[in-house]
Write a structure and sequence with these properties.
With 71 residues, the chain is an all-alpha fold. The protein is 80% helix and 0% strand. It contains 1 helix and no strands. The protein starts with a helix and ends in a 12-residue tail after the last helix.
Amino acid sequence: MSLENRLTELETKFVFQEDLVSQLNQVIIRQQGQLDQLMEELKQLKSKLAAQFSEQSSNFSDPLQERPPHY
């Protein structure tokens, strides 16, 4: 195999690798966007759940502090 053929083959492989790295970078960018969106949704769900729990706990009184019905 001549030096020129080897160089051409290396250049070809390099171009394919460069394209692959670019494609993988786009996948990472898209996945990061999805992660950011999911983290925001999780934060909103946690907030809603905390608000519901707070609302429910304020509707119930402490059974130890309640007077029994026969009083």
